[in-house]
Every structure is written in C-alpha cells, then in structure tokens.
Design a protein that fits this description.
Helices cover 36% and strands 16% of the residues. The protein is an alpha+beta fold and 166 residues long. Strand 2 and strand 3 form a beta hairpin. It starts with a helix and ends in a 21-residue tail after the last strand.
Length: 166
C-alpha cells in the first residue's frame, strides 16, 4: 500500500523539462522515492501521435538510461548533419557501384552479360541526327553466366534439400 501511495505522489510531483526534439516532443525527468532511495524517472510527452518509433536515437538512449545526460540541441544538430553526410556518401557510392557494374557488364543481380546488344546497335539504323534509334532488348540473345552470389527469390526453396558446396 505504501508503494502505491508513493507512486501516486510521484505522479503528482512536478517534472523538470530535460529537452525538446525537432518534432516537438518534450522530455521530462522527475525524482521519486522508491524503497527508500531516490530514483530518477524519465518520460516523454508526444506532440502529435504517440508513435515511439519516431523518437531520435539519442533521446531513446536517454529515456532508457543508457545515457546519463540529455542530448543538447547543438549535439542534435551535429548528429543530424552527420546523418545527412552519410546518406549523401552512400548515394555517391551506390552510383559509383552501378557505373562500375555497367562498365564491367554486370546486371544488378550479379549476373555477367555478354554484350551482343552492342553488335546489334552497330547494325541498327540511324535516326534523323545520326543517333541510333532505341529498340527493345531481345532477351533471347543475351547470354548469362551465373555468379556465386545467391539471386533466388525463395519460390523454389524446399526444406532439407540444400547441401553445402563441395
């Protein structure tokens, strides 16, 4: 009964604002007496919908106690800028990978393609300004060589039939 009374009293105590994230969610802290010891309780008040998956990682770490101090606005700005740089670098690397794969004659599934299409393009009729007219690819002329990377969709999977390569 004493625990229940102390818990209700803890809810009625004023909370201290620890910070606000860019979505407008407010983070609070308050101290409660639990079994004779003061314990810090951390909580969040959502601005709109109460979807915990939209909380920033730094605030989640603070709420769960993995961080002692609440994230500062300056720290949040630096981390957001770092995330944007990582996204841009990932996009650049992906473009370079696609360029390298097309140069090597690889499809996105890791299958090497012999380019008989280039031979067909050389024989294709020219357009009005000397450019080659685009024609639909004839997949029957493309020779494929399997790579060692898995490319299946799982439709043909049979449990217990896989054997490791020898």
């Amino acid at each position: 009964m004493a625990k229940l009374v102390s818990r209700i009293a803890g809810w009625l105590r004023p909370s201290t604002l620890a910070g606000i994230d860019k979505s407008g969610n407010r983070y609070f802290t308050r101290t409660e007496a639990v079994d004779g010891a003061l314990k810090e309780r951390r909580s969040v008040t959502f601005k709109s919908d109460s979807d915990p998956t939209t909380l920033p990682v730094e605030w989640i770490s603070w709420l769960t106690g993995r961080r002692k101090e609440a994230p500062t606005p300056q720290e949040m700005l630096e981390l957001e800028a770092q995330r944007e740089r990582v996204k841009m670098n990932a996009a650049i690397l992906r473009q370079e990978e696609i360029r390298r794969m097309t140069k090597a004659g690889m499809s996105s599934g890791g299958i090497k393609i012999k380019k008989e299409e280039e031979e067909d393009a050389a024989l294709a009729p020219k357009g009005q300004h000397g450019q080659q007219r685009k024609k639909k690819k004839d997949l029957s002329k493309v020779r494929c060589f399997r790579s060692s990377e898995p490319t299946g969709t799982g439709q043909s999977f049979q449990p217990g039939t896989w054997q490791p390569p020898k």
